[in-house]
Request: fold
Amino acid sequence: MHDTAISLIELGAVFFGLGILGRLAWKIGVSPIPLYLIGGLAFGTGGLIPLHGIEPFTHLASEIGVVLLLLLLGLEYSAGELVTGLRRSWLAGVIDIVLNAVPGALVALLLGWGPLGAFTMAGVTYISSSGIVAKVLGDLGRLGNRETPVILSILVFEDLAMAVYLPILTAVLAGVSFLGGLTAVGVSLVVITLVLVVALRFGKYVSALVDSPDPEVFLLRLLGAALLVAGIASELQVSAAVGSFLLGIAISGSTAANATRMLEPLRDLFAALFFVVFGLNTDPSQIPPVLPVALLLAVATCVTKVLTGWFAARMQGVGRMGRLRAGAALVARGEFSIVIAGLAVASGAVPGELAALATAYVLLMAILGPVAARVVEPVARMFLPSQAKKA
Amino acid sequence: MDVTVTPLPGLGTQQDFTTRSGHRIGVITYRDGRFELIVSDHEDPDKVAASVALTTAETSTLANLLGAPQLVALLNEQQSEVAGITTWQLSVAPGSPYAGRTLGDTEMRTRTSVSIVAVVRDGTAHPSPRPDFQFSAGDLVVVVGTAKGLRAASEILEKG
Reply:
């Protein structure tokens, strides 16, 4: 019983500490993700509280955190929105991939981490944090701006790209051959197409499976379904995250809205633990050596995201200022970069420094992103001639 | 009017149009049923200068304010042939003695000889209201009559 007491005290201290960090984050107007990572790093050194009795729990909880992160991401969009988003913004989406995946891949190759490391880092630098971006747009009152639909459709495209990328990543990290990798790609593409078709045609039946007027039953069914699908998906080498993302897409309409409301607090809880565990597993002494590289990468991928937004917004006929706003809004990277790095590091197929680089990079980008979105207009006004009328 | 409908993936829908003065005006309807009125910046039409969150009751009040003038303008246009007759819109303010009482109670026709042709409530016009029509605060009353009668009618709705 004594052990339980210790575990409870440790867990309580962790949660309470995260609560303080989260409060601090919103006070200074940044996302709490970097602070959770720092919290994890601090615990990991054995500096504050050595956490021993709770590893099994935190490990599983961080897995559940990933599942819930992706499930809610899927719930956010209806299948119809995904399809129209894909049709509307595929060109911008492709530009986004090329501009933002390349810097990460290049850096990994230069550091000698091989093709696997390059493939992982490509994902880390590519994907914007839809959570941070949406929050920043809301906070700055820019949801009615003409560039906002452009930003949102790029985020939709990125999430779909994730659904293709994650299974491939899981497959190549598991060390399957080139042919096996191709099979994984084929399987995942077929599965995604199937899910989209099912969601478009029979979304209401999937929703009916989990829906219940009783909140308690609804929550249990939702969680049960999510973990079942995630487990089966990872057994099939499609990765748990993708499984839950697809389940999220398949659940639609009012069920999805209720599910989001219900799961949000749970997601926040488990996702916070996921970031902490990632920080715990990262050796802080590895961060200073990779810091210059992380800084370089941060600056480069700030520029590439701004360019992405610029091009995408220009295609929709948005003026110059709006193009810059679109670009700056996309700068933030966060939870999904860490999910990707976490998958890679857990497989042991990439060097441990990758975790350190990803951590340092996300720390920079999660803080830089909201700042960039805020300062882009005043800065642009200094350089651009006034009256940025429609170009 | 050319209303543009833009889906905002994950959030809702935005409907807007551009005014002759070069502003973009519109409404964002969020999935959770919230509304937001948006007005674009004059310098940079891509940017929103103001976005105001509105409750359902507030949207209908706004629709009221915008809906009644149109009706008044229309009636005025129709009666422009008749000399000395105009159309006004009077409001039943909160605290008006007739808020919550019927049209018959005002004895408007007897006292001022103006006609109440419509009452606009929650953005919809109720044409030719009967004497048992019950006013409520916030209603806009569209009245037709001589200038003198209209002034008297306005007094009545305000002070009883």
